[in-house]
Amino acid sequence: MCPKTAPGRLLVVDDNKVNRLLLGRGLEQQGHTIALAENGRQALEMLHQNQFDLLLLDIQMPEMDGYQVLEKLNADLSLRDIPVIVTSGLEELDSVVRCIEMGAEDYLIKPVNPVLLRARIGACLEKKRLRDQQRDLIRRFATAEVAQDMEESGFALGGRYVEATAMFSDIRGFTTLAESQSPADTIDLLNTYYTLMFEAISGQGGVVNQMVGDGLMAIFGAPLVLSNHGEQAVLAALEMIEMIDLFNLDQTAAGKPDIRIGIGIATGQVIAGYTGTQRRATYTCVGNTVNLAARLESYTKVAGVPILVDECTRQSLGEKIRVDNLGLVPIKGLNQDVSIYSVPVGQRI
Amino acid sequence: MDTQLIIDMATFNDLKEVMGTDFVLELIDTYTLETDGLIAQIYSAQAAGDSATFGRLAHSIKSSSASMGALAFSQQARELEMLGKAGDLSGAEPMLERFSADFLIVKQSLEDLKNVS
Prior knowledge:
The complex is a heterodimer.
Chain A: E1 9-13, H1 17-29, E2 33-37, H2 40-49, E3 54-58, H3 66-75, E4 84-88, H4 93-101, E5 106-109, H5 114-141, H6 144-153, E6 160-171, H7 174-179, H8 183-203, E7 207-212, E8 215-220, H9 229-253, E9 261-276, E10 281-286, H10 288-303, E11 307-310, H11 311-316, E12 324-329, E13 338-342
Parallel strand pairs in A: 1-2, 1-3, 3-4, 4-5, 9-11
Antiparallel strand pairs in A: 6-8, 6-9, 7-8, 9-10, 11-13, 12-13
Chain B: H1 3-6, H2 9-19, H3 21-48, H4 51-68, H5 71-86, H6 92-116
Helix pairs in contact in B: 2-3, 3-4, 3-6, 4-5, 5-6
């Protein structure tokens, strides 16, 4: 027996009035709210005006047929998530296949069997509800990129190995700075800092996935695949420093203290995945590469340079980015000395 | 002709049972009115040599007729649909004449069923 599903708001599109009325009646009997459209063009207008949970779509129609409707839905971000069930004759299975390939969720053969109608509509609405719930949850707790990745890959909390670049950044001497000004000024400063850093990082395809106090962690190459995540991370870092320089001009003009940041970048295999619970999850990366990036960020204080990168990141850089080899240095927590490189700021790229 | 042969009673009775008798009686009027209109449009499409529209209209009649239980008539509509799809309407006229005449019988049979109900 089919589970009883909560009613939904459904749009039935069919050029034949008898078919429309029959389908509409069947769905109303099952408790759904129904709207009827007699061709694709009319259906799209209604979809733009009202919210619908599901579309029942005939294929052959005048003015705009089912394929054209599916094309328009796919191209429209606000409509692409509405599930579509195509209704067709028994001999139109080729057309059904084409519709499924174009993103239709399921199909029903006309004349529609009421039991099958109930089962398919119910399943489709349940799936949509689940997806909507997940999307709400993800949007509340994740960045847009992560939300998109989770929607596409499914809500899996399991991890995987990925090649990516990790970046850590924080403000030098922030505690002293915070003590020298009012709490409101400190929070204001942090918010400006985060806004600037987010812009530089996301501008290069990176994702900020942790913010703690004045520090942040960003990942390049996961969950979104980037062709050259090492170089993009370094370009973002250079932009971050430039933005801080501009910000400092404003600070100076307002009689407020300058800020300095340090950035550590490392590239390699990371374990990436969603950590947390079903109620609150965050995308994160762990592993040696991530640790190294964090250590390099700390080491910027020792080396007296703003940006430090590891060997793998350096190898990913094109010739246009200049680096200074600082040689092998002992890094806290690592058994072997590590080759590190400073990326001088103010380069014209 | 026997109504039984024109309208498949198993389909028709199922329809009444699932959708409700009153709804189906009203649906008969909608169906006959709509199909009259579609047949008129098929004639226009044939006159214009527009085989795509001819096929689409026949497809539409095929589908709603099957729902009403007019299975033989639905099959005739299917044959017209095939003509339209093949893009050759040269032999369509006699078929269309017979189709149009048969629809009158379907219509009468449904009227009879309405009166019985």
